[in-house]
Design goal:
Elements: H1 3-43, H2 89-96, H3 108-125, H4 133-148, H5 154-162, H6 182-194
Helix pairs in contact: 2-5, 3-4, 3-6, 4-6
InterPro entries: Chloroperoxidase (IPR000028), Chloroperoxidase-like_sf (IPR036851)
GO molecular function: metal ion binding; peroxidase activity
Protein name: Heme haloperoxidase family profile domain-containing protein
Length: 218
């Protein structure tokens, strides 16, 4: 075995170890920083509910750019609905009607129940349907934005999902001075995912408050 081969192999091994060490230290640093922000949010006063977005930014004091109705989007799988500009209204209405919180607002339990029902329905209608652990966590993370950024509030979520617009004067429901941290967001996402039972209710319905949803689709 030539000396040049040994030198090249050693250089590659050391480079790989160095890269792995830097990556690990970076991840640890980000987690420590995020945990610090989370602790800071806990011990400091919240921002005023109507002054979350900084001045000079879109949405400051609830002033958003003029609403433009969507024409093309990705609300539903293109195989099921070729026109990607159309939201899946029946699923949205079912989700909005399952809230068990005050005024019919959504809670983590509601999202867990609805996600479990949708997964069970998908398995029943599509034998090839499957979700890896990563996909399950990704889906729960996506749905958790309804609880974190929107606070689960039906009056905010309804126009957002049905009309794909923000309500007039809307502000994010995250009022912590350092905003939404990964620690806080992932806590909500795991709460939703770990509460999911992938089974169909006997009546295929939801057990929420049943608050009526008035829709106005642009």
């Amino acid at each position: 075995m030539s000396d040049s081969f040994i030198a090249i192999a050693l250089a590659r091994i050391l480079s790989g170890l160095f890269s792995s060490a830097v990556s690990a230290l970076t991840n640890i640093g980000v987690l420590i920083w995020d945990l610090g922000l989370t602790i800071y949010n806990v011990v400091t006063p919240n921002l005023p509910a109507d002054d979350v977005v900084p001045m000079g930014s879109a949405g400051a004091h609830g002033s958003w750019p003029q609403y433009v109705a969507p024409t093309e989007g990705d609300s539903e799988d293109s195989i099921i609905q070729p026109d990607q500009g159309k939201p899946a209204i029946h699923l949205i209405r079912e989700l909005l009607s399952c809230g068990s919180g005050p005024n019919g607002d959504l809670t983590p339990i509601d999202l867990s129940r609805f996600s479990g029902k949708r997964r069970a329905e998908s398995k029943k209608s599509n034998p090839q349907f499957s979700l890896s652990t990563f996909h399950k966590l990704f889906g729960s993370s996506n749905s958790s934005t309804l609880l974190t950024i929107f606070g689960g509030r039906l009056k905010d979520i309804t126009p957002f999902l049905l009309e794909e617009r923000l309500p007039e004067g809307w502000q994010p429901r995250i009022v912590h001075p350092m905003g939404l941290t990964m620690t806080e967001f992932n806590k909500t996402a795991f709460q939703v995912e770990l509460g999911i039972k992938e089974e169909l209710p006997p009546n295929l319905g939801m057990s929420g408050s049943g608050v009526a949803v008035k829709e106005k689709v642009a």
